Amino acid sequence: MYLSKYPICLFLISVLLVTPQWASAQKEPFKWPEGKKIALSLSFDDARASQATTGIPFLNQYDVKGTFYLVPSAAEKQLAGWKKAVASGQEIGNHSVNHPCSGNFAWARANALESYTLEKMRTELIDANKRIEQLLGVKPEVFAYPCGGTFVGRGVNTKSYIPVVAELFLTGRGWLDEGPNDPEFGDFAQLTGMEMDGKDFEQILPLIEQTRANGQWLVLAGHEMGESGGQTTRLSMLKKLIEYAKDPANGIWIAPVGTVARYIKNNRKQPE
Fold first, then answer.
1. CA distance 135 to 132
2. pTM to 2 decimals?
3. How far apart are the C-alpha atoms of 66 and 29, rounded to whole Å?
């Protein structure tokens, strides 16, 4: 009787010795500032006019800082507004000079990623940084991939330009992604960006709840800032979202992309 139980005892002992370390490593949540449960970043692309004229003043009313990825030629059209954005502490990012996307978009054919090389992309991103710094006096540290495209070339000559972004910037954010970012594991050069254009707060709330359940970082991405029209983040949604985020009971740290990334970099356990 004793001998028949002996192998089972050995198995149980081995489980007790090994499992606690694994389980504790999996269950230990990332420690956000001030006991918060999640990080939330609001980000906007293209330097759309409505961002400078309407959206940023709206965010300033609530003392909320977002991240704005600029195409320099678009920013020039609302230069006074963008200078006010910098003065109010909004984060300015890089969104390239020519907004290259796949040539499958007919409007992007003149600047198709399929026709780019890594060298051409590197030059363009550096030029965009220089131009933004000339216009606004700040050098962008964060980048958003136009259309979410992360490649150059075609076929067997296709290459990822994520390594270029990783070299030049603190972060690179995607578009139309399917989940939030894991602060202990996520690649800063491949941050997920989840669409908030055209959505009501009730559609955003499940994303927040998912993020909170896992102690993660949700980066929302939008374009125009208003109430109607294509690719528009609704101010009515943002109002509810900001009020929800500022309620201490909800445990949300709302901050620009670069601010959150720097915090994670200084506090994560996993190697970069």
1. 5
2. 0.90
3. 25
Superfamily of domain 33-267, CATH level 4? Glycoside hydrolase/deacetylase (3.20.20.370)
For 89, the token pair is 């502490």
Q: Write the pLDDT tens digit of every residue in 76-135.
A: 999 999 999 999 999 999 999 999 999 999 999 999 999 999 999 999 999 999 999 999
Please name the residue that has the structure tokens 């005892």: 9
Contacts with 83 (C-beta within 8 Å, 6 or more apart), sequence order: 136
267: left (phi over 0), alpha (psi -120 to 50) or beta: alpha
